[in-house]
Write the structure tokens for this entry.
Amino acid sequence: MKANTHERIRSYVVNLDNQMSGGIPEGHIVLISGNPGTYKSSLAYNILYHNALKEGRKGLYISFQQSRDSLQDQFVSLNMPHEWVEEKITIVDVSYLRETMEASPKDWMDIFKGYVENIRATTDYELLVVDSLTTLELISNVENRRDELFHLFEWLRDFDGLTPILLVERPMTEETLHEEEFLADGIIYLTKERVGRVESRRYLSIDKMRATKHNTSFFTLLFDGDRFQVTRVISE
């Protein structure tokens, strides 16, 4: 596919970037959406890690669910040790803050925004991962979801040169479209299906990517011990 004039953020997933004109357009707000166990956090960190390692891009990873140590152990198991990029990628463990800070639900959205703004002022990072938007909504006790998500997305768009990647929990049986899917510029959807009695396979599709010619087919998502890759769906 022919790339357009947008600068692209490469995913560094083998065979994925050429399915979306070279990568994610810089400045797009992209959802990585899927049910549990589909590599959402690993795929998001893969983007941060390889952009830091190979292109020198700075990134911020904000976790509302896993601890920093748990995430680092997970990424080491995927051959992405954090110490190789620790000068380029900042990991903020909000799960620890939730245990140590006395904050009401309505404060957490402001706490999140404060971290994003303060760290951007000192590191000028280009990539932001929020893990996850679903948990941020839960702990913030969002009441008017449509309005609050609209303002959140507009706030993110006000950052020059920032490409946010928001993780979203999407149940396997969920077919209803939600507000964030209309507001986002791109959606990468992950799913997992059981094959036979003992094996599971993971699949990926690019459901949406504005300003981009992209393949809408499902691909098999694989990790070979060293890198992620997508291939044509493996049939029985």
Observations:
- The first strand starts at residue 8 and ends at 9.
- The two ends are 29 Å apart (CA to CA).
